[in-house]
Amino acid sequence: MEITSPEKLEQKLHQLEGRGYKAYKELQGSVWDFGPVRLTFEHVQGDAFAAPSRITAVLPFASSGLPGDACRTALSRFALEDFLLRRFHQAALTRLRNPKGSGKSGVVTALQPSQKIIKRSALMVTPEQIELVFFVGLPAEGRHILGHECTRLFKEEVPRILRHSLTAETLDVEALQRHIETLEDFHALRDQLQEKGWVGFLADGARLARSAGNSDLPLDECLPFKSPSGFSASVSLPNAGEVRGMPILQGITLLVGGGFHGKSTLLKALQNAVYPHIPGDGREQVAVNPTAVKVRAEDGRFAHEVDISPFLDNLPGIVSTKSFSTLNASGSTSQAVNIMESLEAECELLLLDEDTCATNFMIRDARMQALIHKDREPITPFVDRVRELYDRFKVSTVLVIGGSGDYFDVADTVVAMDKFQPCLVSDEAKRIAGAMPTGRKQETPQPFPQLTPGRQAPVSLNFRKGKKEVFIAAHGRDTLVLGVNEIDVHDVEQLAEVGQLEACGWVLLALKGWLEKNNGPSVRGVVSFLETMQEEGVACVLPWNNGLVSLPRLQEVMAVLNRLRY
To answer: What pTM was estimated for this model as a whole?
Structure first.
């Protein structure tokens, strides 16, 4: 492929001045040497209002001036990738002047990172080079090319943004070091959970509250977290040293307290702590078992051949719940399905908030048991299974509960939240349970069946849409489109970025090929692809790197697959 100088690009753009927008397509596939950065026009947009053109920038690492230690380990490279992508966005926001043109003319952007540090296809660092996939809106006025404005864009704006994001120019060395150390400490913290018999940890001083219900940004005036007296522990981290905080022990933990005192805030911090967070987020030293799944009721969801018999049996009109299917699940059946599918996806920690759970699935108190006998009630409530899940399978549970003291009888740890501060009340809860027996009878007619890996998805998964053999698109974090199928995932709460949802689609496409050659549960194929993406780069399952995908977890990929209607 011919590599051309910036001067020839300028000449080319001047020739395009005033022509129809389609003439920009002459740039597609061309490579331009901006010394030392090399730009490739991978895809050129069809008009000024279409998605901006995709460009790949490659810079030799030795030419970046970045510290060599930042490439020393896989973790430091991971942190550097995240750090540089954020620098790109900061540099792109500082424009020399407002761009001219209509539609998306002059836009310079890339995949927008969340508060989490996640592997993304937008930027990849190796000891040899830095590769960035970014997007530029090629300028036009209506349908006529603004060649001179495009020249200015690639002569002034784009080189400046790349210098300020990929090279040591304006580099804040201390900020980069904090980024690396924060990620190293998070992984060291998470590695210690299992050996200490914990499923989570919240450091003293953490800021858990967010600025708004629809925002993941920290609340500035948030009260710092402080572990309860008599229930704190310390961990030794490679950079932060000894850090004290509150452990979440294996077993069953209840989060209790009055309304608006921080129970759900703490649980949300835990469900988000399956990912590391950037410096300044407030949750940098909050970690949880990486397989943790937030489970909720999900009225109306699709389910296909799920064994929900541990929780529901003898449903009217249903021959057997060992292979339960529905197009429109109720609150209780959907929650049973979500739990069983999470266990199939190798979940070791269930997170539940009673506000988003089906009441009749969670508990049947003594009075209701007396009125409606067990032989007329198909539901075995979660309170009667949660202990068994841990004792037999080592699946722990953290549960926000404010309305049912029946869970005191099965809990190992009870933490009360008071004005967003925790207090250990396990002994008091046990005393109350002993002094005030509810008279409730346990309802477990059959032992919980042995846990097995996830079922095999059908080989007939169809990704075709019209003339396109493969069509995969994410609409926000709520909907994934695979061919003509729309998958509703708005209740899959731990999807952190749109790019993760799109990546789920590409993993499922790869899974289709895997299933044609292999026998066995789908979860094995998904695990294999996720491990490859972790090692070789997130884009390895894509036909080309679109710069828009982020690495998902096994649990989210399986959640998407299980909601695909077929």
So the answer is: 0.96
